[in-house]
Amino acid sequence: ADWLRENGIAKAVKKAGRIAAEGLSKVVVKGNKACVVEINSETDFVAKNEQFLTLVDTIANALVDAGVKTVEEANAVSVNGETIENLLINATATIGEKITLRRFEVVEKADDEVFGDYVHMGGKISVIVVLKGSDATVAHNIAMQVASMNPSYISRDYMEAEVVEKERAIQTEILKNDASLAGKPEKVLAGIIEGRVSKTLQEMCLVDQLYILDQGMKVSQYLKNNNTAVTSM
Length: 233
Fold this sequence. Notes:
233 residues
């Protein structure tokens, strides 16, 4: 993906990271715990199957209370006398496609925090965010922002130094391959690089993105207006 960007083949970048699998994700919230889970099938057709939808719901509800952290541990969780692994095997046999638990995460919040969740296209994308305070509408809107704009970090404070250096290296290579900038002074080129690095990193950070429901402000301003902050996503 980095090579594609450096050589200007931007449209191929998103496709390079796709996972060759269909299926659905789901969010379940119970009190101060929430779980987001992804179950894979081989085709989109099966992902709309009523039995598959029920399976996703059953597993998500089981995992929110199970206290497990890995897929291996999750597969051993018992649901009505059967392990999740057996539920998946039985579904595979009945439906006729390989059904797998790909990943999940259980999130906990404090009493003075609120969950925001958003499920897009029936489960193609699922998001959980945790915000300070108790405004469920704001939390839901931020979850929708995450689903739409796919930030990698809440803010620059959460970003590792090597991420910044990697982006700087990529932008440097892009400039080297840009004939229109040949002969420009080093100081000018350095300024262009830093400007592009800053712009890319802003797009990667939730609080620096333009707020999708009001393009006149950034997410940071929307959060400030509502006296809240994002603690996790």
